[in-house]
Amino acid sequence: MTEYSNILVERRGRVGLVTLNRPEALNALNQATMEEVVAAVRAMDTDPGVGAVVITGSSKAFAAGADIKEMAFQGYMDMYAADWFRGWEDFTRLRIPTIAAVSGFALGGGCELAMMCDLIIAGDNAKFGQPEINLGVLPGMGGSQRLTRAVGKAKAMDLILTGRFIGAEEAERSGLVSRVVPAEDVVDEALKAGEIIASKSKPVAMAAKEAVNAAFETGLAQGVLFERRIFHSLFATEDQKEGMAAFTEKRQPEFKHR
Ligand code: CAA
Questions:
Q1: Residues lining ligand 1, Cβ inside 6 A
Q2: The pTM is what?
Q3: Which of 132, 213, 219, 253 is most enclosed, with most CB atoms within 10 A?
Q4: Distances (CA, A) of 211 to 23, 39, 51, 197, 235
Q5: Which among 140, 171, 137 is positioned nearest to 156, based on CA atoms?
Q6: Which residues, 6 or more positions from 95, have their beta carbon under 8 angstroms from its beta carbon?
Q7: ipTM computed for the complex
């Protein structure tokens, strides 16, 4: 079992649970935490016993951003040479479905990490924001791009230019989060959603994730064609045969490749 200093890693049934664990810094994402999160989720990605991943923080903070104290005295060449934040790109290349369970603050890099997940389930105490402008910078982990795609230009400009925070209800109304639940239930609800996803065929769930992500990365015609070709290719799988046979025979499917 790998030892981590900044995160807790568990398995709950078929779901991997990663808990950010730097309470003294409201789970600020320093470079070491990035490396640990990415290592933990990459191991889950290829683990046949894991069908979904939940990332969470504490009840006070999912994560209050990138670690400001670690960045404060860096120069341009330090940031450029280290390609600061590049490690998060590996998170976005995961094939396994990922769920952010957000309680409390999800600010700056915390909001950006949540947005790198496939869906966000928010506790009713969640606060989302991109306050980097108050630090004399702008979002650096994809926020200007992912937030704009998630909530549209007007709301993204509002959050990024003013630095104001939005609550769970406004985040749901804006399309940033998929569900709002009582704060104390957020991890359980995310684990339940993860267990449902993990009960499906894993390769089919990965293909579905790829198809939805294509909506962000390609034009409409290209994305629709990509989806249709994946749809065709799934007819080469045993899980498609089983899924459709189970429907016809009025029983639950027993997917082989979970
Ligand atoms: N980096 C480093 N340390 C942080 C931190 C961060 N992002 N956020 C909080 N902390 C630390 C505080 O410095 C404090 O430590 P000390 O006790 O040693 O002083 C501890 O966590 C508790 O924080 P507060 O005392 O500030 O707690 P609060 O309840 O009064 O306020 C808060 C909570 C509003 C979230 C406030 O901590 C805050 O504004 N944090 C910074 C939010 C922010 O600006 N995030 C963006 C970071 S830059 C970024 O993320 C770039 C990017 O795009 C990737």
A1: 25-26, 28, 64-69, 105, 107-109, 112, 131-132, 135, 139-141, 143
A2: 0.96
A3: 132
A4: 36, 25, 18, 16, 16
A5: 171
A6: 45, 206, 209, 210
A7: 0.98
